């Protein structure tokens, strides 16, 4: 073998070693672009609104957007706490007058929707996840009621875990029990999973003031041991129940809705 041929063999061998050393780089998994880069609390706040009439009533979730029209999900008992006209206050502080859509009925489930129009501002809309299982980490969000005059109302975001998923719902459709601290005013706000997806709608606090029997939607009562477990947890209506019923909202219309800056 002459010198020039030997040189060529050595060079090719060097290239082969270099490629071999760099091969692992090719096998590195691509970045997970589905991972959320925005903090969960910020995601939750972007889709959570205040529901008002003359005064603050509770919280709500921006469920969907159709053009300039937004649908907000909340609890029926939140709306029952005040009289129309209802108003929605979004994360940017703007207040919009909202209407109750016609021909939408959630039956005996503690659910209701409002709709408002925003001609200038665009708001985030919730994404939805599957019902969680016991032990899953969940996050409850909303706006607790202010009890002291002059105290500023702040957004609350609490961490906990699912404690119970009932085989059949309690009255109002409540089926997800969790350890998060939920205060007055957070009713209607979202319960989220680790991906920032809404899995339920907050509505019942732990340790109710009146220890009444836990009653299921079918009218039967929970036995005492289960009842004691139920009252130690906060409760949400599963978002899966909402999505089974909400397609009817697409057929509704909103009239005489206007917006105004706060």
From TrEMBL:
InterPro entries for the chain: Peptidase_S1_PA (IPR009003), Peptidase_S1_PA_chymotrypsin (IPR043504)
Pfam families the UniProt entry points to: Trypsin_2
PANTHER family: PROTEASE DO-LIKE 5, CHLOROPLASTIC, SERINE ENDOPROTEASE DEGS
Name recorded for this polypeptide: Peptidase S1 and S6 chymotrypsin/Hap
Residues in the signal sequence: 1-23
Keyword Nucleotidyltransferase part of the UniProt annotation: no
Organism in which the protein naturally occurs: Anabaenopsis circularis NIES-21
Membrane keyword on record: no
Keywords: Signal
